[in-house]
Amino acid sequence: MNLKRLKPKLLVLVLFTVAFCSGVYQTQGSSSQKPNIVFIIADDISWNDFGCYGNKVVKTPNIDKLASEGLLFNNAFLTASSCSPSRCSIISGKYPHSNGAAELHTALPESEIPFPLLLKENGYYTAHAGKWHMGEATHRAFDRYTDGNGYKNGDGGEANWVRFIKERPKDKPFFFWLASYDAHRAWGADTFKITHEPANIEVPVYFNDTPETRQDIASYYNEIARFDYHIGLVKQELQKQGVLENTVIIVMADNGRPFPRCKTRVYDSGMKTPFVVHWPAQIDKNAGHTESLISAVDIAPTILEIADVAVPENYQGVSFLQILKNPEAEVRQMVFSEHNWHDYEAHERMVRTKDFLYLFNARPNLSNCGPADSKNSPTQAALNELRDLGSLTPAQADIFVTPRPAEELFDLNQEKEQLLNVASLSRYREKLVEMRTLLKNWQNETGDTTPEDLTPDWFDRETGERLETEQIRGTMPGTEN
Description:
Helix content is 30%, strand content 13%. The chain is α/β, with parallel strands linked by helices. The protein has 2 domains: 34-327, Alkaline Phosphatase, subunit A (3-Layer(aba) Sandwich), CATH 3.40.720; 339-446, 2-Layer Sandwich (Arylsulfatase, C-terminal domain), CATH 3.30.1120. Helix 7 (211-240) packs antiparallel against helix 12. The radius of gyration is 24 Å and the shape is globular.
C-alpha cells in the first residue's frame, strides 16, 4: 500500500486500523499463553545444603542463580521425610495418611487425582523424567514418562531431562516433573566433574567429626553438584527455546539428607526443604527471599492456580501464588508433618510455627534411628564408635535414645537445631497445651489414626540389615477412615 497517495482522513483510518488490529493480536497472544512449569525435585537433600541457603562449601551455582533471580523460601516444609510418601503427597495435594500412601513404597491409589492429570486435561503437555516412586496409577497423569518404558535415566536420574524438553510439542504449554536420584545412597558422583574436599566440610554437631564422616558428606555434596549441573542445562535449553521468561521453575527436595538424625525425622533436618521459584515474567528480580510458611500440600493448588485450572475440593493445601507476587504475604500460620513406616515401625506427628515445633510420638518405646541406608553409612559407624566408648554428646546420642519422650517441644527463638526439649519446663506449659491441641485438631480434621498393628520393623535397628522374617504390612494410618 502506498500511504503517500492516500487522503489524510483515509490515512488516519488505515493507521488506526493497523494499530488496533496489531494491539488486539498482541493482547490475545499474551493472554492466551499459559505459563510453562518445570518442577525439579531432588532425592534426599536437606534445606541448608545449597549455597543460596548459606552453605559455604557445596557447589550449587545454577540453583543459586535461580534463587538470586527469583524467590527463595526460608520456611518450606514437607509432609513426610520419606521418599514415596513425600512425592505422593506433593502430587496428590493431600497428607500421606489421607491419600492411602503413608508408608514407604506404597503406591498412590487410582482414586487420588494427581495434579499433572488436571493440567493434561486442560491443554498442557505433561512429561516425567527420572525417579518415579509413585505407582503405576500415576502414569495416566503424563503424556510421556520414563518409568518402565525402557529409558535409561543415568546414574543421577537426569539423562532425559533436556532431551524431553527438546522433543516436546511446541504448540502447547508444558509441565515437566524432573526427578533425580541425587543425592540418594549409594554415592555415584565421586568421579563427576565437580567434587568437594573433605577437609573443607563443616560437620553438624550431631555427627562425629572423623575423616570417614567428612568423606561421606563430601560424596553427598558431589551428588548435589551433579544435580545442580543438570539444572543448569535445563535452564540453558529453556533459554535457547525462548520460553524461559514465561516458565516457572521450582527446585526442591523430597526429604532430608540420608544421614543420622535427618532423613525420616520430623525435625527441620529432615522435614524442611530447600524451595526456590524462578519465574521472570511474574517474580521481581529483587524479590530475594520470603519467611512465609508453606507446606508440600500447597504445591499442587499453587501450580493449578498458576495454570488457571480449578483445584479439587478435597485437596488439603492452599495456594501460595500471592507470595510469589508479594514475599510479605502469608497463607498459613503452621505446617504439619508425619513419620510413618520407613524400614522401621514409627508413628510421629509434628506441628510447626515460625516460633515453635511440637511433636508427638506414639511409639516412644522405639529408637528413632533413621532409615536402613543411613544405618549402613560411615557417619553412623563413627557415631557407633563413640557410643561404644561412652563418649557421645547429647546431640549425638539422640538417635540411640530409648525410650524416647512422647512429647517434644522446641523454642526456635532460643535454638534452631531442635536439640533442647522444653516440654517439661513449667514456663512452657501453656504453649505445650496450645501446640498439642493444634496437632490433635489437625489429626481429627484430616482423618489421621494410630492403628495398633502398624507395620513392624523389616530391618535390624543396629545394623540396618534386612531381617529374616516374613515382611507383612500392618494397617496404615488413616486407612480406617
